[in-house]
Amino acid sequence: MPVDVLITRLDPDVPLPGYAHPGDAGADLVTTSDVSIAPGERAMVGTGIAIALPAGYAAFVHPRSGLAHRLGVSIVNTPGTVDAGYRGEIKVVLVNHDLREPAVFARGDRIAQLVLQRVEQARFHEVERLPGSARGDGGYGSTGTASQAGDSAGGR
Ligand SMILES: O=c1ccn([C@H]2C[C@H](O)[C@@H](COP(=O)(O)OP(=O)(O)OP(=O)(O)O)O2)c(=O)[nH]1
Ligand SMILES: [Mg+2]
C-alpha cells in the first residue's frame, strides 16, 4: 500500500516524483539546473521538491543504473538519507566517475530516484561484553573470494 507523503514544489515547473512502472521502488527525481560535471568532479543539484515524511519513515536518494552504465555517473553519498523531519529541498550530490567525458544534464533530466523505507530507531544499551556469534569480529573479506565461499579457513 502506498504511503501518503506531503510534498511542495519549490520550483513550480518540475514534475512530481514519478514511478516509471507500477510497483517500482524508486520515484525519479529531476535536476532543476543545467549542469556539466567534468571527469572525476561532483556537483550538487536541486530537485525542486521538499517533502514531509510520516514518522518512522526515511527516504533514500539512490543513483539511477542507466546513468551509471551510460555515463559513469553516481551519487557521492549514495544512498543519501532524507530524514522524516527534513523540510528543505532534496538535493543530490552527483559525481562523474568517467575518466574522460564530462556528464551533461539539462534542467528536467531525471538524475536520481527516491526510495521510501520504514526505519527503526535504536535504543542503545551499553554493556561490558557483547554476546558471542558465529561471525565474531571477522569482516572485511574474512570469508575469502567467491570461489572460496564456504571455505571456513578464512582464505584470501
Ligand atoms: O542526498 C541527500 C542527503 C541528505 N539530504 C538532506 C535531507 C537530510 O535530512 C539532510 C541531512 O542529511 P545528512 O544527515 O545525511 O547530512 P549531515 O551531513 O549529517 O547533515 P546534518 O548535520 O544536517 O544532519 O540533508 C538531501 O537533501 N539529499
Ligand atoms: Mg545528519
UniProtKB/TrEMBL annotation:
The keyword Transcription regulation does not apply. Gene3D superfamilies: 2.70.40.10. Residues 127-156 are annotated as: Disordered. Substrate binds at R64, S65, G66, N77, T81, V82, D83. Its EC number is 3.6.1.23. Keywords: Hydrolase, Magnesium, Metal-binding, Nucleotide metabolism. One of its GO terms (molecular function) is magnesium ion binding. Residues 15-144 form the dUTPase-like domain. One of its GO terms (biological process) is dUMP biosynthetic process. Coiled coil: none annotated. InterPro entries: dUTPase, dUTPase-like, dUTPase-like_sf, dUTPase_trimeric. Its cofactor is Mg(2+). It comes from the Bacteria. NCBIfam families: dut, PRK00601.1. This enzyme is involved in nucleotide metabolism: it produces dUMP, the immediate precursor of thymidine nucleotides and it decreases the intracellular concentration of dUTP so that uracil cannot be incorporated into DNA. PANTHER family: DEOXYURIDINE 5'-TRIPHOSPHATE NUCLEOTIDOHYDROLASE. This is Deoxyuridine 5'-triphosphate nucleotidohydrolase.
